[in-house]
Fold L-fucose:H+ symporter permease.
Amino acid sequence: MPHSLPPLVSRSLLPPFILVTSLFALWGFANDITNPMVSAFKKVLELDNFQASWVQFAFYFGYFTMALPAAIFAKRYSYKKSIILGLALYAGGALLFYPAASWESYPFFLLALYVLTFGLAFLETTASPYIMSLGPAETATRRLNLAQAFNPVGALGGLIVAKEFILSRLRADEMGVHAYAALDPARKAAIRTADLEVIRDPYLLLGAMVLVMLVLFLVLNMPEKETTYGRLEIRAAVRRLWVQPRYRWAVVAQAFYVGAQIMCWTYIYQYAESIGISNADAVPYGISALVVFLIGRWVGTYLLRFLPGGKLLLGFAIGATAMTLLTIFLVGMAGLYALVGISFFMSIMFPTIYGIALEGQGEDAKFGAAFLVMAIVGGALMPTLQGLLLDLGGSGYTDLRLLGVPEINFSFFLPLLCFVVVGWYGYQVFTYYPLPESEVVPPPPRP
């Protein structure tokens, strides 16, 4: 008889699997409603590209700050309590948009995003290893890819809300930069107040929705192994992880990957604007990138049945590198289409790196997850560097030509570098890095 693959999830564990998987969509929504806010805040508050990029810095630096405390909390208490605390922080950050808009304070908006991502750090540090533990170890990476496939579903929702309820209603964007700048102070202040309220309202609704999820998790039974850990066990776990090049370089690769993803998804609006497409009209291209990303995630999850993760990662990194070169050197709509196409090849990178790094780590997986989530700091640093590149010739996107292309095109050499690093890691995994000699991640006890 032909060998049959074990099931991804048993029926008894479907309820926690489904509800925890919904969290992937929930943080995808937060990520992608925030990406267009770089351009929105730039116009409403009259910022340069570097100042506007602090939206992404505040958002993704929250992951770096809170990932390790989140792992310690999950290790000492439980996945369920960690998720509940994460949802509370997520809702609190979203609701802080109300006083931020009332005070019309850009630093307060940044603080709200920073607190919001404290919650996301708890959720991502907890949800991914928990999903991996809900079944046989040999299907853990496939199971994580399946759960991660719902992340772009939430991201699509975030982009649609950003277009319909924020970008299309911003008066500052509708008027144009020069007309808005030329207004008298009283008129400009009135428009700024109204536009900041437009930005505020979807986040308030998001906060309310997250509170509903919090209630659902309060009543959910989440089976898991009960353990307690002291400081010595934590230190020993960290040492065991960092002596493994397979894990150590996964953290580096993850930082570069997340940086590339956030740059491609944030600056697609500026790329479109450089060829005469407004922010609101550019949202369909952002949506197209997410649809392509979702297709790539499903294709990649299927291919993992036949190819080892390292080989698939290398192949997709080569594809992303090729599409990024086209984005740089094709000026106009062809370059924009190539930028959308990068998303297909980015699709499997995060969960595949994550799965490779945590495979065989046993109980150390909770701390392994923390450092991989801390690597999301790449999404804070890289877009800021891209913003600095865009300011070289002025606050526009085509003020300067480098290597014969506008500065917005040239700035995509940063994602190109990131994909080279990811491809190198994929090659190292299937060529040199063995699995750690430890027990596989055990499934939680049956309810």
